[in-house]
Amino acid sequence: MKSRNRFIACTAQIAALYAALTYAQGFLLPGTTTMAVQFRVSEALNVLALFTPAAIPGLTIGCIISNIYSIGSGLPLDMIFGSLATLGATLCMYFLKDVKIGNYPLFAMLMPAIWNGVIVGWEIEHFFIEGDFTWVGFFTQGGCVALGELGVMLTLGTIFYFVIIRRGLDRKLFNIKLK
């Protein structure tokens, strides 16, 4: 298969997996994917940005698709801002993939918490909290969002990262080169 077609197929698979995991979790454990402190299992897939650039559009599109569910909950803006946070986080993860402490890309693993904490924290404080924007509210909302992201990335994301490395899946699955 041509490398461009493989890239597109990998992007689509990652997007579908992210959306399916988010929908399944939302169905089985309502609220755990949309509340301020959320533990979205699908966010562990951000680790894929360390192995393939196809994960960047894949995770962003998957986030857009999964946040369509949020429209019914009164959160249409999360489709925009949550997806922008995912795009920023995965881009940074991809570019920081070789910056490691020991054999662990800690700085890259922190990117989803930082990006979502800032962007989604601002979104919540600006659009969903009645009254004027306050820095205390922003840091509270952003901190809650970042806490959930940290929980996912430092537990499930770390496990997923080491499983991919130890099983050699990074070379088997993600050896995609664009011409």
Q: How is this fold's topology laid out?
A:
Elements: H1 3-28, H2 55-71, H3 77-95, H4 106-128, H5 135-166, H6 169-173
Helix pairs in contact: 1-2, 2-3, 3-4, 4-5
Summary of the model, kept short:
This protein is mainly alpha-helical and 179 residues long. The chain has helices spanning 3-28, 55-71, 77-95, 106-128, 135-166, 169-173. The chain is built from six helices and no strands.
Please give the radius of gyration in angstroms.
16 Å
Unreliable sequence segments: none
| Cα separation of the termini | 13 Å
Secondary-structure-derived class: mainly alpha
Order of helices and strands: HHHHHH
Give the overall pLDDT as a whole number: 89
Shape verdict? globular
What name does the CATH topology carry? Arp2/3 complex 21 kDa subunit ARPC3
